[in-house]
Amino acid sequence: MSKPLGKPDRIVVALGGNALGNTPAEQIERVNNAAHALLGLIEQGNEIIITHGNGPQVGMIQNAFAAAHEAIGTPEMDLPECGAMSQGYIGYHLQQGIGREMHKRYKRWHVATVVTQIEVDPEDPSFQNPTKPIGPFYTEEQAREIMAAEPDKVFVDDSGRGWRRVVASPDPKKIVEAPSILNLLDNEFIVIACGGGGIPVVRDYDNKGCYKGVAAVIDKDAGGELLAEDCDADVLFLLTAVEHVAVNFGTPEQRDLTDLTADEAEKLADEGQFGKGSMEPKVRAAIKFARSRKGRTCIIGALDKAAETMSGLSGTRIHG
Question: The pTM is what?
Answer without folding.
Answer: 0.90
